Structure formats: C-alpha cells, structure tokens
Amino acid sequence: MTTPASAARGRSAPFVRLLALCRLLLLLLPCLPFGAEAAGTGTPVKLEPAQRRWLEAHGQWRVGTVLRAPYAQIDGRQGNLYGANVELMEQLAAALNVRLQWQTFQTQEALESALDAGSIDLAPGLGQTPAGLRRWLFSDPYLRVSYLVVGERNGLGSLDLETLRLQEPLAVDVPEAVRDYLRSSYPNLRLEAVGSPQEALQRVLSRQAKYAVLDEAQLGQVAREAELAELAIVGDIGMPQLLRVASRRDWPQLAVIVDAGLQAIPAKTLDQLHRRWLQQPSHARVEQTLGFWRSVGLLLGLLSLICLALLFSLRRQRGRLEEQLLAARREVELRDAAMEELRLAKFSIDHSTVGTLWINWDSRVRYANHMAERMLGYLPGQVIDRPLSDLEPSLSMERWHELWKRVRSGDGGPLGFETEYRRADGSQLPAEVSLGFLRYGEAEYLVVFLGDITERRRALAALQESEAQLQSIAANVPGLVFRLERQSPGSPVEFAFIGEGSEGLVGYPAAVLLQPGFGLLNLVRADDRVHYQRTQAWAFDGCHDWHWQGRFVTRSGEQRWVDIKATARCPADGEVVWDGIVWDISANKRAELALAESRAQLRELSAHLESVREEEKAHIAREVHDELGQVLTGLKLETSMCELSYASLDPGLRERLGNMKRQIAQLFQLVRDVASALRPPILDAGLASAIEWQARRFEERTQIPCLLEVPENLPALADGKAVGLFRILQEALTNIARHAQAHTVELRLEVEGESLCLTIGDDGRGFAVNGERPRSFGLVGMHERALMLNGTLAIDSRPGEGTTLTVRVPLNNPSTLAEAG
C-alpha cells in the first residue's frame, strides 16, 4: 500500500539524486588539474651531487608489496598491478627517473623473508613499528589512514567512545596494536574481533554489535555495496595509521633519496591519491535511464563552465590575497624582529653592570638604568629630570657646556676621567666616567657610563700599604731578601730586588750586589760554587723552586753558612719570578755538627750496651738452662721416688704426684723456651742454621709458609754480627705475624761481593713508605742495629703489595757489636 509520504518521497527522488550529483561534482572539482598544483607536477627533487651519482649507479629498484586492496591489486584480465601504493611509487619513479621492478607477496612475513634474502630494495605502505626498525629504514609518512567507527545513521553527530556502556559490543577488524590502544584508552569498551570487514558491518546491520571499527581503506572497499547504505561514519578512534616507504637498512642513501622524492610530491597530489583510493563512495543510487543521464550531462556541463569561471576568478583573487598576506607577514616579521631587538637592547641596558645616564643639553637626566639608580642610591624613576649638578656638585654649567661641545664634536675620541658623585644619602661615590654622544630621532644626548671604583681605590691603597710593609719587612729581616726575574724562556735571569739586609749579612750594600756581574755568585766559597751553580741551573731550567745550602765569604773575609730558599712563580706567559731569602745558618750548622758528633757517640754507647745485653742474655740463658735444669731434674727424680714408694698407699696421692710431674715437664719446656728466647743455642751452630731454626718456629707458630734460601758455605761471621742479623730477623718476623696479614714469607741470605745481604719479604697488605724516619719502635730498633753493624736497612712497601726488608752488612769491617763482643 502506497502512502502519501512515500509518494512524495518518490516524486522528489530525482531532485535528491540531482542534488547529490552536484555535491559530488563540487567534491571532485579540487581534483581537476589547474595551474601549477595539478597532479603530476611539483617541485623538482633536490639531491646532493653524491646522492645523484648514487642514483645514477642504481637506476633500477626492486619494489616488494603485499597484495591488499586498495593499496596493491592485480587486474584479473590484463594482469596489471594497480592501487594506491603502486600509483605513488610510479610518481616517485618518474620524479627520480628510475625503473621499478615489482614483486608481489601474499603476506607480510613473505615480504620480510624476501628482504632477508636480499631480493627487494624497498616496500611502500608499511607502518613503522619497533620490530620493523630493525629491518627497514622508514621514510616520512605520505598517507594517513584513519580508523573509523561505523554505525547506523541516527543524526546525533560524532560519537564519543567514552560514553559507550560496557555491555554494548564493538566489532573490530584491526591489528592487535590498535586493539591494545582501544583497551588502554577506553576500558569501558567490549571488543569483539571478527574475520573480515564485511562481517563487522553485517554484525552492525543485524544489531549483534553496536558499532564496527575499520580502517578507512577497508571501509572504502566494502561500503560500495547497496545494503550498507544505511550505515554511516560516526567517529574516529584517534589513532591513525601512517603509511611510509620502507627501504633496506644497508642502503641509507636510498632512504634519503626516497624522502627527498616524497617531499617533492605536492600535498594536493597526495590528497587526490587519498580520495581516489581510500575514501568511501556515496551510497546514493541513480536511475540508469538515458533521459536522466542527458539531463545530468547538460547540468554538469553548465555547472562545469560556471565552476571554471568561478575557480579562475577565485584563483586570481587568492593569488592577490596571498601576495598581500605574504607582504603583510614579512612586514609583521620585520616589525616583530625590530621590537625584539629593541626589547633585548633595553633589557641589556637596564640590567647592565655599568651605570648609564642619558643627559639632555640642559644637563638634566632623561634616562637612568637600574645599575645607575642602585649606584646613586635612588629609587626607580627618582633620577629622571634631575640636573647633573645634583649628582656631581663640582660640575659647573661652564664646564658642562665645554664637555658637551667636546664630546659632540668627537675631537680626541671618547672622553673618560675619574670623579666623585654624590649619592641620595649624601655619601660620596668614587666613579670612573666615560662620555659618549647619542642621536636618537631628533634628540641629542650625552651618554654617561659610570663604573664604581670604590673597590679599586681600596685595593690600590691596600697595595701601596702592602708595598710599604714589604719594604719595611725586607729592611728589617735578619737576612737577605731578593727577587730574580726572567722575562721569557732563554733570556738571562737577573736580580730585580735585593733587600737592605745584605749589608748586615755579607757586608755589601744592595747597590753593590745589584751591579752587573756581581750578584751572589761572587760571595760563594770556591769549594761550593759547583754545587751552587748546579742547583741554580736546575731551578732556572725547569722553573722549579731553588734551595741551596753552602758557605759565603763576607766582605771582611769571614765564612758563613747560609741557606737560600726561593719560590718560583709564573705571573705571565714565559715570565718566571723567584722570590727568596738568604738566611745565616752558621749557628745552626755548628749545632748540627755538634749534634752529629753526639749522635755518633750515642750510637757507639748504644752498640756497647747492646753487646753487653747480649752477653747478659747469653749468661742468663746458660744459668737458667743449667741451674734450673738441674733443680728441675732433681725435683722430677724425687717426685718419681715418692710415686714409687707411696703411690700405692693412697690413690689420690698418685694423681697428685702425676700432676706434679706434668707441671715439672711444663716447667722444663718453659725453661728451654726462656733460654732460647734469651739466646738460641742454635746460634752457636752458625747464622744459617739459626735462620732455618727461626723460620721453622715461625711456621709452627703462625701457620704461614716460609720459603728459605740460605747458602751452604757461609763465610765466618763475628758473633756480634750474627746476633745482630738474627735479632733483626726476629723483629721482622714478629711484625709480619702481627700486622702484615701475609700468606707467604720469603727469607734469603746471600753474599754479594764484600757484603752479606739478608732479605725478608711478605705478600701482606703493606704500608706507605713516605721517606721519613720510621716511627715504629720495631723499625727504629732494626734500623739502629743495622747502623751498629756498619750496614744499611732498606724497606720497600706499598699498600696492598706486600713489604720487602733488605739488610746489608760488610763482611770484612768488624762491627761495633763484634768489637764489643
């Protein structure tokens, strides 16, 4: 049954169709080739010479593509390859003048396998992924394919995915990455994956799903079916697919050339490519009648002529507007640049560290920067319009006009001087003034640059005071103060200053010593000149500090011991200055010689006492061993007799007598240990045997292995020398056990020429040897024992690298201990 509403819709259908065709024509008009923006034309490809040479050497490219509509398809009748990616690559090849060799694949995996095999060079239409970056070099994107939301037409406008309820299903035919994006961005969605775009749309039509999510290209292919005319695009998920040209990674030149070629393709050409291949068509139906198409043809022709005229007029008008807009933009840019420069200049002047005043011809201040206001103690704006005489009371109008004329004429260049300005609180400001002239527009100004020289004057006064103090100190120092200077490397070193204390030290005034060819060298005693010149040359050649001790001969012929110390400084490139002083150390030298003699006597006394102590130790050891040994032997016999006679009478008595016998045995061992500690009997068998015995005892006591190397035939040694070396060995092993934390100890006794060398080494933690005298009593004792033996003791140690102690004593010269013994 036909209703009036349906009849009205039937009568108005041709007009609706005609209106739809007019809208389609208006959409296609921008795609027509007009002017310089027509398809196929664009800017020439800009390549470097090296890139052009590479392109000429590689004139044929192997292009791989996955067969997928509408990007790449094969015509079933003619076998030709067509599609969006094919058309893009053809335009790129024409722009770069290269040949293309196409290879088609059914899957992305097959395409990547061909890349790994080296059979393709590039592939269009790929999306950039982290996994793909390891295989390809990607160009900038040339097509943007949106993921669209399709649903029934409801006239409610665009859809917000966040408003969907959880129970409303959403059919999706998109990659897994897009589904992950939808799950993370819209957790309220219930996604249902389908196998094809048609299935997704059929679910929406059958109301099994509220909406479907497809990419723009898929929708353009399936939306041609008439049954899908009831559906419409209701939204965009906000995550587009960016298509790029991927090239092989081992040809970076190819990626650069492809980018340059894509940039040369006009944006309008890419838009046409997008509309032609990816945009979904209209679903309006048109009656296939001849009369209808004639009417449509006439109407289209008329509309085309009108549109061409309008387009020509609009293009001319747009050209004029673009030129005017470009000129206005340049003018605005120049004005903005000038304003920016002006702001920067004003900011620089306002925040400069130099005070700046602009003074008009009537001597009134027209501008003052922040620094000038702070220097003069005024608040912002208080200096403006003040006469300069308020700031500088000594400035009269006559002198002001003279300064104005002089600076304005430019005679003599910039004018500068020092003066004093008056601050707002009445205090004085020492300032360095520099004057300049400025024309700004039609006005003329005298620019005053102020620099606060308070600190400079204070430093100058301090310098003058310091120089006066230096002169006073140098004149009163009980020595000779001097300064040596060398202007550049290779130039002679000359005295620049000698204090007046020279006359009290050597009898010559400073003026005599400063004469050419005199200096300090003529004061040095002849025997000491070689050492003096050697130390001086070393200091001068390497710019080192100079130190020398020797004897001067004064003007009266008296010999004096002096100490020269000079410190090197480098105030400028190549210039070296030595500041030093000559001290009279004659009294100290006499005391030093007396002290050395006293030390020698003390060392002889110490050697004698050590010899006496060793003799006493030997005597005590014999007494302990013989006397106590006899007593303990008798006590042990008596105890044994008591045990034989009375142990059977009382079981407790047997136990007590057994304890007494064990204690007597322990006492026997203690007596032997004491006797060995005082003087090991093994020393009577020779030093080599004593060292071996001591090494075995050290191993038993500490469980540290000792590697021993002792000569078989050792020359005969005096008893005192053997005892001294043995005591040094005992002290060294004691230190190793207490402090070294060693794993192995090496002992070596060898004859080196006329000397006997004892080396004790360990692989323990070591310590820092700073060259000073040892502070440990053990090390001091070993050092003194070596000196008593007329020998030397050397210690080589570093933290973490162990310690080696070497003792050398002469074989022929009798030692002090030997003589005492």
List the helices and strands and how they pair.
Blueprint: H1 4-28, H2 49-57, E1 60-66, E2 73-74, E3 81-82, H3 84-96, E4 99-105, H4 108-117, E5 122-126, E6 136-138, E7 143-145, E8 147-152, E9 169-172, H5 176-185, E10 190-193, H6 197-205, E11 211-215, H7 216-222, E12 231-236, E13 241-248, H8 252-264, H9 267-277, H10 290-350, E14 355-359, E15 365-368, H11 370-376, H12 388-391, H13 397-409, E16 415-422, E17 428-440, E18 443-452, H14 454-476, E19 479-486, E20 494-498, H15 502-506, H16 510-513, H17 529-542, E21 546-553, E22 559-572, E23 575-584, H18 586-646, H19 651-678, H20 687-702, E24 706-709, H21 719-740, E25 745-752, E26 755-762, H22 777-788, E27 792-797, E28 803-810, H23 816-820
Helix pairs in contact: 1-10, 18-19, 18-22, 20-21, 21-22
Total number of helical segments? Answer: 23
- Supply the helix-strand structural class: alpha+beta
Biggest β-sheet description: 5 strands, mixed
Task: Please tell me the total number of domains.
Answer: 7
Q: State the fourth-level CATH superfamily of the largest domain.
A: Periplasmic binding protein-like II
Helix coverage percent: 40-55%
Beta-strand percentage range: 15-25%
Globally, the shape reads flat
Strand order of the largest sheet: 10-9-11-8-12
CA radius of gyration is: 55 Å
Q: Poorly predicted ranges (pLDDT <50, ≥5 residues)?
A: 1-21, 24-41, 282-289, 814-821
End-to-end distance, in Å? Answer: 150 Å
Q: Return the CATH class of the largest domain.
A: Alpha Beta
Q: What's the architecture of the largest domain, going by CATH?
A: 3-Layer(aba) Sandwich
Keywords: Coiled coil, Kinase, Membrane, Signal, Transferase, Transmembrane, Transmembrane helix, Two-component regulatory system
Transmembrane segments: 292-314
Coiled coil: 588-615
Protein name: PAS domain S-box protein
